[in-house]
Every structure is written in C-alpha cells, then in structure tokens.
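Order emerges. As here.
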Amino acid sequence: MELGSTAVLELIGSPTDTKTFNKITGTGSIKNEGGANTFGTLSAASFSATGGNATINSGVVSVLTLSGAFLAGSKVEATSATLTSGFINGGLQLVAGTLNLAGLVSVSDNGSMLSVGNTLNIDTVSQLTLTGGSSLVVAKGAQVKQSAGFTIVQGAPGASSPSVTNNGVFTSEASFFLAGVPLSGSGTINLTPTASWTLNNVQLSQAYFGSVGKVTFSVGTFDVPSVSGSGAFSGNPVTFNSTSLSAASFDLQGGNVYVANTTLGSLTLNNGANFVVSAGAVFTDLKILGGVLTGSPGGQVPVKAKSTEVNGPNVQKLANLGLKTTTFNLNCDTSCQLITANAMVTVGGSR
C-alpha cells in the first residue's frame, strides 16, 4: 500500500477485529484508533496509536504518538515520538531522535526499550513503569531535559530486571523518584537548585552528580564505585558502600555509610548513623549530633576538619581515627555523651 502526502489511513474496530498490512510506504498518515492491527514494513510521515493494539515489525516514521493504546512489535524508528499514555510491550524497540514523555507510560517484556538519540523531554509530570527486561537508554551525547516531576518505578517482579542507562547529560530541574530500577551509564547528572532526587533501593554505577540540587538515598543498599558532585546528599536509612565520595554535604539521618576516601563540605551525623572511613577523610564542617564516626578497626585513620561540633543529648562516638581539627566545639545545652575508642583528637592549627 502506498500513502500519498495527503492520505490518511484510519483504523477502527473492536479488539477482535484484526487487520494485517504486509507493507505500507509513502508520506501519508496512519491512525490506529481501534482493533488489532499488524504492520510488516511501515514507512509514513506520522503514526498515532490512540486505541486498540498495533504491532509493528519494522517501521520508520517522522512523528509517532502513543496515547491510550498498546504498541508492540520489533523496531520502530521515529524522528520524534510523544508518549502521553499507553503500553509498549512484546519486545518493541522504540528508537527516537527526540522523545517527549508527558504522562503515564508502561514498558514491559524482555527487550522492550525506549532509546533516545538526541533529546528526552519531560516537561509534564510523568511516570514510567518498567517491567521485566525492559529498559530506557539515553545515548552518548544525548540530553535529558527534566523540568517537571518524573518517576521511574519497577513493575511486577519477573525473571528479568529492568534498567535505566544514561550515557548522555541528564539535567534535572524538578523532583525525580527512582525505585527498584538500576541506574548505570557513562553520562553525567546535573541537578539545578530546584531539583530533588530520591533513590529508593537503586543499584547505582552512575559515578558523577555535577549538581547543586539534593540527592536522597532512601531505603536499601547502594553500592557505588565512586560518587562525586557539588550537591547535597542525604541518606535515611541506608547502607551505602563507595570507594570515593565527594559532595558539598552529606546528612546521614540513619543507616551505615562505608567509604574508603571522602571529601565533603560538611558531614552531619544524626542519632543512629554510622559513618565508616577506611583510608581517609577531609571535612570543612563536621557535626556529630549522634551516631558514630569511625575508621577501620586496628588503626587510626586520618580525618581532617576545619570545624568540629558535638551537640545534643544523644550518644556520639569517635573510634579508630586520628581527628585533626582547627576548632572543636562542645555545644551542649544540658549534657553531651561523647565516647572515644582508639581515637585521638588534635585541636588547633590548620588542617
């Protein structure tokens, strides 16, 4: 079938109304509004799926729209794709130059993938649910522009796990919630002051947050080879393992952090927090409001701080470290409970 530039193929019908098109070419438009329609080879100016089911084995379109339909098949390439609602399944790979997410979208089944070559836009509050071995992949050199709230969650657990891979530049200006889906890639993450990220039980291999926003590690275990950036990190309650950690600040509300080397503008330890350094640490401001700051057992790990403050009635503990600090303040309203074990504190001079 050949579609001219002004031709429109409109497909309607009940869910049991099936149609098969072996080959469609041209520069016309296809509207999948109902029925169960299968396309062998498809080439068109635009393809919209607003109802029913569409299965595309091989497709190339300029503009693709998904809103309230099921889209399956093998592979579709689109210059621009807009997803407002609907389902992508059956192993379909949607490869888009520009991808606009603007609503509730679900991607499921092994091999199903959203692949972004140039730009991923999220300017409307959106949620992406990834199930099975499905994935979101941002190519090297591509940009993610997130100016509205964005949530990525894992669907029903299956034999395979979904994933998010960022090889581009992810710029966030709003809230972002990622739960149960691993985040990896060679790209960077830039958080503006209005951005706030919450990572819930996420396996991370993303190494760099070039950020001034806030990243919260919430619930679960995080194994991160290296994390750096200029933003504010917080955790509650977490188990956080990293070889190298640097940021403007880290506010540990509870849980355990294990690092080899760390450089932080400020570290705040609250009651129930356990911060373990195995090689060395440098802080501008160290605030111990509760919890434990410790080095590895059997030695005294070097820790340097410009200012150290112990405050509050909760038990605070320094262990297995040598702390050299320019100032040391005991700001206790009624009492302080500072316990030291194989720890030496040197006050005065420069770091």
